[in-house]
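[agent] plan:
  1. take the single chain provided in the ticket
  2. run structure prediction with default settings
  3. attach structure tokens to the ticket
  4. add a short note for the reviewer (M.T.)
[agent] executing step 1
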Amino acid sequence: MQLSLIRKKNGRKGKKRGKDSMKRFNIPPEQTTYTGPLDLPKSLEQAETTVVRMVSIAAFTSTAGGVFNSVAAALPGNFTDWSSFAAVWDECRVLGLKVTYIPFFTANPSVTQGSVVIVTDRDSNGALTSLSAGYDYESCTLGQTERRFVHEAKMTGIEDSGFVTTASPPTPWWFKFYTSGLSISTAYGELFYEMLVQFRGRN
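[agent] step 2 finished; step 3 output follows
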């Protein structure tokens, strides 16, 4: 599957949310982890780098066998506005990715619901084959097809933090889903993806 994830803090009274208060998003290029929030304005720019929020939407639809075991590549090029930023900046890295599932059915006796596992895999794009296989991942998030759920992944170390060329960026990690026993060939909801990408090296 091609990739076609809200916390608010009350600021002190009278304090404006300007560039100074937003610097926590645009981390130094040498920093190897990202622990900040995954919600920010469309673009946050400083002299050397810029952090951009990109979005994409995908369907959550069961197969003819009543299964949903999709693998979503966290590839920046699959997101909106990618080409316009890649044309301006030479290098990039993914700071984080969030997916929010919004169900179509919350109480419908004609549709069979099920449990869902979603994981982040930083090594392999192989699909999950069972709930237990997904539950075994440390990164596993549990959900249900009739309820909203959120899964996040962030840059965590040296292997994730390197800048790569915008000409052909590799996939840093994959989001994997699994659920079975669903009504066949049924659209259960939609997956809303948000990615934070940091660019550097304006050309």
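[agent] step 4 note for reviewer: The two ends are 32 Å apart (CA to CA).
[agent] ticket updated
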